[in-house]
Amino acid sequence: MRILIISDIHANLVALDAVLAAASDYEAVWCLGDLTGYGPNPNECVERVRSLPGLRCLVGNHDKAVLNEIDLSVFNGDARAAITWTRRHCTAATLDYLRALPAQDRQGDYTLAHGSPRQPVWEYILDRFIAQDNFNLLPTRYCLVGHTHLPVVYRETGPHGQCVDEPPNYEGPLDLGAQRLIINPGSVGQPRDNNPDASYALLDTQALAWQYYRVPYDVMATQSRMRAADMPERLVLRLSFGW
């Protein structure tokens, strides 16, 4: 089965539509959370995602905050402003959908989490030491996570979760092989790796192959919508640079 892997859309409808237009020949979609927050189109993004084929979707920390299930004090000022705006503009249907999403899922050999196996909603796997701790808790061969907005592969190399980190390869597929892996597809709507292009991946579960992709989108269109919503200028500007 070919599966489209997306994460951290953050209400950026223009970026999401660019990914869906660029991706092809997939039979299912796994979304790793944070459909909302930061961006100007939360309802439209939720509607678009929930219509995708074979969907498995998780809740993220921004989604939880929009639902008043995470205290806003743990977010920085710009994120708080965007979440507060999102709370005011989400429809009842959007909130009901987010409320029903699981924090973690398991599909065969794959564990899906927004943050990590240890803390599915909140923990950031930012380095190989945090990844090592999570390999020791991982019940499956592979784990797909989002949350950091950084595309990366952690490959287990030792019996106690020791691992190395590998940058994304856009030139060819990654052979998943027999080693255990924790993989982050990067962010659709809020890239943070100094590349503003939307990030996603395609997973072939039969061939055990993973392919990273980047697609440019009309950043200025999203920025215009954000300014019309009076969102913090720092959130607007960072989209141009992918940080």
Arrangement of strands in the largest sheet: 3-2-1-11-12-9
List low-confidence stretches: none
**Secondary-structure arrangement, i.e. CATH architecture:** 4-Layer Sandwich
Judged by helices, strands and strand pairing, the structural class is: alpha/beta
Number of discrete helical segments = 8
Straight-line N-to-C gap: 33 Å
Helix content: 25-40%
What would the CATH topology be?
Answer: Purple Acid Phosphatase, chain A, domain 2
Rg, please? 17 Å
- Going by CATH, the homologous superfamily would be Metallo-dependent phosphatases
Number of structurally distinct domains:
1
H/E element order: EHEHEHHHEEHEEEEEEEHH
The largest sheet, given as strand count, sense and whether it forms a barrel, is: 6 strands, mixed
Shape field: globular
The average pLDDT score comes to 97
CATH C-level class? Alpha Beta
How many β-strands, per DSSP?
12
Quote the beta fraction.
Answer: 15-25%
Give an account of the 3D structure.
The chain has 243 residues and is α/β, with parallel strands linked by helices. The chain has a single domain (2-238), classed as Purple Acid Phosphatase, chain A, domain 2 (4-Layer Sandwich), CATH 3.60.21. 29% of the residues lie in helices and 21% in strands. The protein has 8 helices and 12 strands. It has a 6-stranded mixed beta sheet with strand order 3-2-1-11-12-9. It has a 6-stranded mixed beta sheet with strand order 4-5-6-10-7-8, covered by helices on one side. Strand 5, helix 6 (128-135) and strand 6 (142-144) form a beta-alpha-beta unit. Helix 2 (42-50) crosses helix 5 (92-99). It is globular. The model has no long low-confidence stretch (mean pLDDT 97).
